[in-house]
Amino acid sequence: MLASLTPATSRPPVTRPLTRSLYAYAVAILSEVSAETQAKARASGADLIARAKEGVEEIQPSEAAVELDGDDAVLVDVREQHEFEERHIEGAVHVPRGHLESRIEQFVADRSKRLIVYCASGNRSALAAKTLADDLGYEDVTSMAGGITLWRDRGLPVVTPRSLTQEQKERYSRHVLVPEIGLEGQLKLLDAKVLLLGTGGLGSPTALYLAAAGVGTLGLIDDDVVDASNLQRQVIHNTERIGMPKTASARKTIEALNPDVEVIEHNLRFGPDNVIELLSDYDIVVDGADNFPTRYLLNDASVRLRKPVVSASILSFDGQISTFVPYEGPCYRCLYPTPPPPELAPSCGAAGVLGVLPGIMGLLQALEVVKLVTGAGTPLIGRLLLFEALGTEFTELKVKRDPDCQICGPGAPQIADDELGKFPDYDLFCA
C-alpha cells in the first residue's frame, strides 16, 4: 500500500534518445537561421552590391555597344534626373532607380526583351538588374560594368543635352517628372513653332495651355478686334481690351503667363495670297476657323506643305476634333469632300454656342499639339472625336483616307513649286 503512494518523480527516468536528437537538430537549425539573419542585418552596402553582382550578368561597355547597334536590346539609365541631364548614352530610356518598379513597364512592357542597365559606375545598375530579374520578372537583364564612366573612358559617344535654366526647371518640373515628356520632351516643346488660326473661342484656351506648356513660338492669325460678345467664351481676352485687336490682346495675356514664349502677331486676314508664306514658318497649325472656305484653303495648303493640322469645330452643344497629318491619315477633304448646305451648318453667331464648349475642345487641341511635338501618346490621326455636351458623351469614328481624294489621294494632281500659292475660289466652292 505504501509503495503505491510513492511519488511519480521518484521513478527511474525514461530515456528518449530519438527525442533528444530531434531537439538538438532543431536547435542547430534555429541557430543557423538566426546567425544568417543577423549576418544579413549586419550586411554593408558593399556586401549587398557584391551579392547583386554575383547574381546578375555583367557585360563590358564595348559588348553593350555592339548589342545596341543591333537594335535588339533596350538600354535603361537608372541614374537620377540631374545626372541624366548632364550626359547620357544616346537612345537610353531614363527610369531612375527609385522609380524603377513603378515606371519600367511604361517603357518596356515585354518582359522577354533584352535589357542593358547602366548607371554611373555599375553599382546601382547591378541592384536594379537584380530587381528587374528577381522581383519584376524580366527574363534577360544585364548590368553594364563600370557604367557611363567606363563607357566614356573607352571612347564611346555620349549625348550632352541642352539643359533648362533654373527658372525653367521650376516652371516645367511637373512635365519633366512625367516619363512620356521628361527633359527631352520639354526641350522639344520649347523649340516648337505652332500657328493658331484664330484667337477666338477655340484659339483662346489652346493658346493659353500651349503657352503654359512652354511651346517656344506661337503665331497668332486674326484680323478681328475684341467685342463684348466674345468674352462669354474667348477667355484670353478681357473687358478692358474691348476694341483692341485680338492678336494684341492675346499676346499680352500669353506674355504675362509665360515669358519663355515668343508671340508673333499676324493681324491680317488669312487667304490664298498669304497662306503659303504663313504656314511655311511653323511646325503645326491649330485650326480654329469659323467658316468653310478658310478650312478648305488651310487643308489644301497644309497638304501641299506637309504640315500637320489639329482641327476642331463647335456649335451649340456639339464639338468635334481630328488631327490631319498629310499622307499618314485622311485630310479634311477625305472627311468632307464638299461643304454641307448652309442650313445644316449655321454659324455660332446664328445658332449660339455654350461658353464652356470651346474650352473643352480647345484643350483637346492643345493636347493633340503636345502629343505631336513630344511623340507621346496616340494623336487623333484617322479618328474623328465627337463630343456632345448635354449628355457629356464622347463618340469616336474611324476615318480612312479617300483613295479618290483630289488633294491627298494617289491620283491627286502634282503641284509644281511655282503653283503652290495658286488656289481655287473657295467662296464659290462653298457657296
Break the fold down into its secondary structure elements and pairings:
Blueprint: H1 17-41, H2 45-55, E1 57-59, H3 61-69, E2 73-77, H4 81-86, E3 93-94, H5 100-107, E4 114-118, H6 123-135, E5 140-144, H7 147-153, H8 166-171, H9 173-177, H10 182-191, E6 193-197, H11 203-213, E7 217-221, H12 246-257, E8 262-266, H13 275-280, E9 284-287, H14 292-305, E10 309-315, E11 318-324, H15 332-335, H16 348-351, H17 357-374, E12 383-388, E13 393-398, H18 426-429
Parallel strand pairs: 1-5, 2-3, 2-4, 4-5, 6-7, 6-9, 7-8, 9-10
Antiparallel strand pairs: 10-11, 11-12, 12-13
Helix pairs in contact: 2-6, 11-12, 11-17
Structure description:
The chain has 18 helices and 13 strands. Residues 1-11 have low confidence and may be disordered. α2 (45-55) crosses α6 (123-135), α11 (203-213) runs parallel beside α12 and α11 packs parallel to α17 (357-374). β4 (114-118), α6 (123-135) and β5 form a beta-alpha-beta unit. Strands 8-7-6-9-10-11-12-13 form an 8-stranded mixed β-sheet, with helices on both faces. A 5-stranded parallel β-sheet has the order 1-5-4-2-3. It has 2 domains: 53-153, Rhodanese-like domain (Oxidized Rhodanese, domain 1, 3-Layer(aba) Sandwich), CATH 3.40.250; 192-429, Rossmann fold (3-Layer(aba) Sandwich). It is α/β, with parallel strands linked by helices and 431 residues long.
